[in-house]
Sequence to fold (306 residues):
Amino acid sequence: MATAKLSRRKIAAYFADEVVAGRSVVKPLAAYLIESKRIREQGLIVRDIEAALADRGILFADVTSSYNLADDTKKAIQDYLKDKTKVKDVHLRTDVDESLLGGVRIETPDQRLDATLRHRLNQLTASKI
Amino acid sequence: MIYPLQQFGASSSGDVFSALGIDGQMLLIQGLAFLVLIYVLNRWVFPVLMKAVDDRQEAIEAGTKAAEAAEKKAEEAQEEVQRALKEARAEAKDIVTTAKDEANAMIASSEDKAKSRAEKIVKDAHEQLEKDVIAARKTLHNDTIELVALATEKVVGKTVNKDIDKKIIASAVKEEA
Fold:
């Protein structure tokens, strides 16, 4: 029996509530995506869930730098994000990209801060007339 | 010369006509002949002569009139010629004046055109020069940026280490906060 297609917003809100409640959502989400044949939307749905979690005080941020971040640096970034987005809990997903040359790039569901030297150099190059 | 006086002396005893040698009968005949002559002349000769004279006079008068008319016509023709010459001179003068004016206008127009063209050429040259300068500046600007970016990338790639990176991140977070 075919079920009505739920909006990503509703799906994200449901699974965000599940995460806040402390329940695992990986398997149910995977099962739902397979069942509803919406595997291709998994990236968008995960991002929507993260946005819904941010609304509930839990922020997931992708942090990319050219070196592994020290703990105090991570702490500083978390404090910065808490202050900026007014959330209670911040989780960082770190990644290393040596081509960034230096600095850090922080991406949240609805914001992006690129403070890398690569970005500065790109800006400089883009200022060509 | 003596003969008439002798005749007068010889007849002094006759009548006066005889003394004068005049024959009264002859005189009468001669008078009649004279009258006949006068009549004949008046009747046939004088009219012809008078007519000829009149004709001649008329011819002379006609000739005079014709001459006068011719003279008048000649004068009129002369006046006409003078007037035509005057008109021709005036027209020629107008033509020359017009031609001079047109020539001056053409010269002025040509000068204006030449001046405008020269100014346009100079203006175009200035604009082109300005464009070239701007293009050169752009090229220099872009090349400089490219060079600076490349050099910075090379230098930063070699100089930035973990500690410097940490400071950069701290500074960025502090700046954004």
